[in-house]
Amino acid sequence: MQAGTTIFEHMSGLARQHDAINLGQGFPDFGWPDAVLAAGAEAITHGYNQYPPMRGLPELRAAVAGFYARNGLDVTQDQVIVTSGATEALAASIMAVAGSGDEVILFAPAYDAYAPLVRRAGATPVWVELQPPDWQARAEAIAAAITPATRAILLNTPHNPTGGMAGPAMLAAIAELARAHDLIIISDEVWEAVLTGPERHVSPFSLAPERTIKIGSAGKLLALTGWKVGWVVATPALAERVAQVHQFLTFTTAPPLQVAVATGLALPAGWYEAARARFTIARNRLAAALTAGGWQLLPTHGSYFLMADLAASGISLGDRTFCEAAVARAADGVAAIPLSAFQPDGAETPFIRLCFAKSDAVLDEGARRLNLARARLASG
Ligand code: PMP
Ligand code: GLN
For the segment 92-115, what is each residue's pLDDT rounded down to a tens digit? Predict the structure, then answer.
């Protein structure tokens, strides 16, 4: 990876340079509600253009609380702080609960921003491995990582990059250990509605509401990743701690987008069910085409991502080597993301991440190119 850029920037840049199909960076090319775009345009032309309140527009805070209340969580508007994307919510939450000399437990593989944000806060990441193929961490492994310096456990469910979900045993262990050791659970749930299996999303907020900072993002809920509207949900006291950081980090988030997101969160449950079904169809389409081409895929439950196993698919290259080779093919380049970018030591792995949130034509051409790459690079 080039110094100074994320793996997502790097691979999207290469995809543009080589005119490759981009199944790397996680953004959809369909799936957003037109009514939300119209609400945003209307808000810009009708006066939502000056600083909104630091904690977010009341209409969006109410909409976030209402959305979660309809989904079974006991949330009120005074528990919601609007942030500039989940990324800011993560930064503000980490800085609110951990500082110099503290430790934060992270699960590996982890979303690329977590460890740098923990270090920026002056704290130290302490790693617990998620075990493939179902990407769970055992209670004993989490317990063993806790020291007197531990302040928080940062969980991501559904999980980027693996598409896994924290199961009941892992969630119960986290809630129990957090209570026993007085830890905060920072719970990154940006993928909570992008579910491609029958499972229901379970938030640690439903298990330990008194110590969970739940993070969400309109980018994923409404398929508008560039909007960067996110939020935290926590007890009023914890939310206040996050707000103290947020007020000097970004202070506010673009108000027309906040208005528009509020209308999106009020869409009927049927819209969300249809979106979930549509992403599931896309996942299945890419999975079927790749399986037919000899790829071995891992089971996934949520997010825009599928994981492919290079070694089991007959490719002995490391993930980064494969991705750099696959994207640079003159007429049939395809971008993917190496799992190593999410690993603490960055060492190459035999897994790549593929984004399936694409129209049929892109998925079909992407699969054709990946199947070509596999046929070319498979060692026997
Ligand atoms: N957390 C996870 C797990 C993500 O996958 C992403 C984006 N894909 C983010 C946070 C960042 O979300 P946002 O764009 O709202 O900052
Ligand atoms: N979260 C997106 C992904 O996982 C990318 C975000 C980014 O480009 N930093 O692909």
Answer: 999 999 999 999 999 999 999 999
- pLDDT at position 2 is 41
Among all chains, which residue has been given the structure tokens 């699960």? 107
Q: Quote the tokens at residue 140.
A: 């004993």
pLDDT value of position 1:
41
Nearest ligand to the CA of 158 is 1
Cβ distance 293 to 371 under 8 Å? yes
Q: Which residue has the tokens 């805070």?
A: 61
- Is residue 108 within 8 A of residue 129, CB to CB? The reply is yes
Ligand 1: which of 8, 27, 160, 261 to mutate, most ligand atoms within 8 Å of CB? 160
**Residue 21: strand pairing partners:** 334
| Three-state DSSP state, 336 | coil
User: 228 CB less than 6 Å from ligand 1?
Assistant: yes
Q: Which of 54-58, 115-119, 132-136 has the lowest mean pLDDT?
A: 132-136
Is the minimum distance from the CB of 25 to ligand 2 under 6 angstroms? yes
Reported confidence tier of residue 330, pLDDT bands at 50, 70, 90: confident
CA angle 258, 158, 339 (to 5 degrees): 110
Q: Give the number of C-alpha atoms closer than 13 A to the C-alpha of residue 173, restricted to the C-beta side.
A: 17
φ/ψ of residue 314, rounded to 5: 90, 10
Dig out the tokens for 178 from the structure.
Answer: 């957090």
Of 2-16, 86-100, 280-294, 302-316, minimum mean pLDDT range: 2-16
pLDDT digits 0-9 by tens, 179-220? 999 999 999 999 999 999 999 999 999 999 999 999 999 999
- 237: tokens are 């006291």
The rounded distance, in Å, linking the Cα atoms of 76 and 101 is: 34
Q: What is the mean pLDDT of the chain?
A: 96
Antiparallel, parallel or unpaired: β 351-355 and 150-156? unpaired
Sorted by sequence, the CB contacts under 8 Å of residue 189 that are 6+ apart come out as 156, 157, 158, 201, 203, 214, 215, 216
Under a CB-based contact definition with an 8 Å cutoff, are residues 184 and 195 in contact? no
Those residues whose C-beta lies under 8 Å from the C-beta of residue 138, and which sit 6 or more positions away, are 131, 170, 173
Alpha carbon distance 128, 142 (integer Å): 6
> How much is the pTM?
0.97
Residue 218 and residue 229 in contact, taking contact as beta carbons nearer than 8 Å: yes
